[in-house]
Known about the structure:
Blueprint: H1 2-30, H2 33-41, H3 48-58, H4 74-77, H5 80-84, H6 102-137, H7 142-156, H8 159-173, H9 188-202, H10 204-219, H11 222-229, H12 234-245, H13 247-254, H14 258-263, H15 266-272, H16 277-286, H17 290-318
Helix pairs in contact: 1-17, 2-3, 6-7, 6-9, 6-10, 7-10, 8-9, 13-17, 15-16, 16-17
Amino acid sequence: MISYIIRRMMYAIPILLGVNVITFALFFLVNTPDDMARMQLGAKRVTPEAVAKWKQERGYDKPLLYNADAAGTGKLTHTIFFEKSLRMFVFDFGRADDGRDIAREIRLRMGPSLAVAVPAFFVGLLVYITFALVFAFFRATYIDFWGVVICVAAMSISSMFYIIGGQYLIGKLWHLVPISGFSGGVDALRFIMLPAAIGVIGSFGASTRLYRTFFLEEISKDYVRTARAKGLTEITVLFRHVLKNAMIPILTGVVVAIPFLFIGGLITESFFGIPGLGSYTIDAINSQDFAVVRSMVFIGSLLYIAGLLLTDISYTLVDPRVRLA
Length: 325
């Protein structure tokens, strides 16, 4: 078990390093620091002096990969690649264009993002699996038919409709919760209820239909027919056998959502005025703050790889045969 986990962790290191190198190439080779300066300054005629000053203030005046003018290890460390990319591995993200420390902003904004994303994640998972089991139990009946119709209809509606409709109906007409904003402590519950509920509803159609497919695939297998032949009830078969054996594909789908627990919903946080990491990323993109965008890309890739590692570990708990892979 331990050797399996160590082996999976070793696989993650080159993947994360590769993502970091590709991100660096996209930001600094395709889009050079001179291009960044001209976009930030926003003037039609930018003087070379203004470009040089902008680069110097933000540490972009050094060579990209190799500093021939430096001495010793400084040839590699006094470079943009080391200071802007490799330092991210020790969570040194530097400063944003407005001078604020990016790591501090991430720590402050992680709480609001988690406050919305974690309830939506766990409540949604419970709701999706429950309805998928119900549809699988009543398969080939009107309940299953209309359930699939509702799922397809929900999948066809944009998440923007749920956000705007929920704000208008729940917030403006019924005045049950605030339309936007955020507050700390117990009062935060009033602000996270609506975006969390919309997060659950917005993914209901796709997730429920996907899990229903997993359950129906398991129901058609031989071990299920054997369990029925032994006299087990349909509910016992579903919960004791089908649900357990369908957990591996379910866990594979769940891992995709793990990074968003920390990064937050980009659109949801922006519309509800939640000061989380999602809105932080959107604001950085709009203001062309490349330091913040790079940091969020790195964190997203790190969390996704961590999610894959947790999924591999959870596989061993659900199906011990995976340990031999």
